[in-house]
Amino acid sequence: MSLELYFHPLSSFCQKVLILTMTGSPVVAINRAVAIAETRGPVAGLEALDALANDSRLVDYQPYWAARAGLLARTGEVDAADGAYERALGLEATIAGARCLSASPASRFRLSFAP
């Protein structure tokens, strides 16, 4: 692999797609959805997360809900984002993670990502 390709911004996205294809990992799928949001916008990222909604492995997976909350906040869906933040906060097992989530209500998060 050339250094140019290795440092290309899309190379990380391409790696996520390849790993997802090989493993079917929901964690990689969440990372892919976030990468899509960064390259195509939060609505596209939410669509990718919505495709994972029926995966039973994610029902109680805190990073899924945190990613969903962040993307919802970026689209201005503050009420839905607040609900997802609450779900993520309820699933967080560490004090540091809970502090991070509780310090990021959707209204503040949305403002920090305003175009």
Descriptive account of the structure:
This protein has 115 residues and is an all-alpha fold. The protein has one domain: Tetratricopeptide repeat domain (Serine Threonine Protein Phosphatase 5, Tetratricopeptide repeat, Alpha Horseshoe), CATH 1.25.40.10. It has 8 helices and no strands. It has helices at residues 3-6, 9-23, 26-40, 42-50, 62-74, 78-91, 95-102, 106-112. It is globular, with a radius of gyration of 15 Å.
Count of distinct structural domains: 1
Q: Which CATH-level-2 architecture? A: Alpha Horseshoe
Strand content: under 5%
Q: The CATH topology is what?
A: Serine Threonine Protein Phosphatase 5, Tetratricopeptide repeat
N- to C-terminal distance: 35 Å
* Average of the residue pLDDT scores: 75
Major β-sheet annotation: none
Characterize the overall form: globular
Helix content: over 70%
Tell me the CATH superfamily: Tetratricopeptide repeat domain
Number of helices: 8
Tell me, what is the CATH class?
Mainly Alpha
**What is Rg?**
15 Å
How many strands?
0
Task: From the structure above, extract its key features.
single chain; 115 residues; mainly alpha; Serine Threonine Protein Phosphatase 5, Tetratricopeptide repeat; disordered N terminus
Gist?
This protein has 115 residues and is mostly helical. The protein contains eight helices and no strands. The chain has helices at residues 3-6, 9-23, 26-40, 42-50, 62-74, 78-91, 95-102, 106-112.
